[in-house]
Amino acid sequence: MEWVIVVALVLGVPLSLWIYTRAFRRVYFVQDERILVTQYSRLDAAIAFVVALYLLSPLLLASSSGKTADPIRMDAQVMLVGYFLYYGTLLLLIVASLVLRHINLGEVFRFDKTLGLHAVRRGFVFLMYAAPLVFVAGFFVNWWLDAKQDQQDVITLFEQSKSAAQRIPLFLAAVIAAPVAEELVFRGYLYSVVKRFLGGIPALVLTGIVFAVIHANIPSLLPLFLFACCLTLAYETTGSLWVSMTMHAAFNAVNLVISLSQFQSV
């Protein structure tokens, strides 16, 4: 079984690099882009800056105090409520600013692209192309640091949960709520605003860095940065936020399943 995985990665990584390098070239050099950003003003630049600071604030506060939360002692329901309030506040700020200026939400978040099997299928295809690159990056970083990759809080909570009543809300949060909220904030708004004022490539890099950093996991920084870039390129290539949401949801689901299978085998 291990040799099958090795062969798949040996074949998959060059294919991943070719697919996403080609998408990068088409979007940013051939300018075959689907995401138009002309509707944003300097107010959006200020809001995007505030949103970025808000996203980074828990990490900044934790580093300044020198304390971090213990996920094993954290209550799952408290974590979920906190997460919804956290991203709900961001989305409320963004949506309110757009509505008050009579900016069409469908155009901003690409709701005009109907969710269907085509978008879901494309999301899974883009994830299949991205997976070998992200996996190998994670393996390389862990080998370089000679460290075991730390788990994110939600995975630790999922493993420590003893019943389906505890696990189902966590699973739904990780596979549905998190991808929807994070894609609306990162790809739907932040990326587009930064692209409007700094250009596509800086927007790709900056939003990828913020996305990786807020997960507060040093060994995962490079894999998450690459995954964020893949999400953005899929979004730009298809013009559909549903595609990046599908990628994100499937990625989280696979990580949870793998983590749970490893936990149960110990």
Describe the structure.
- There is one protein chain.
- With 266 residues, the chain is mainly α.
- The chain is 79% helix and 0% strand.
- The chain has one domain (38-265).
- Residues 69-73 have low confidence and may be disordered.
- The chain is built from ten helices and no strands.
**Could you tell me the radius of gyration in angstroms?**
19 Å
Sheet of most strands: none
Helix-and-strand structural type: mainly alpha
Count of structural domains: 1
Shape: globular
Q: How many beta-strand segments? A: 0
Which regions have little confidence, pLDDT < 50, spanning 5+ residues? 69-73
* Helix proportion: over 70%
Beta fraction = under 5%
Query: Helices and strands, in N-to-C order?
Result: HHHHHHHHHH
Number of helices, counting only DSSP H or I runs of 4 residues or more: 10
What are the defining features of this structure?
mainly alpha; 10 helices; 79% helix
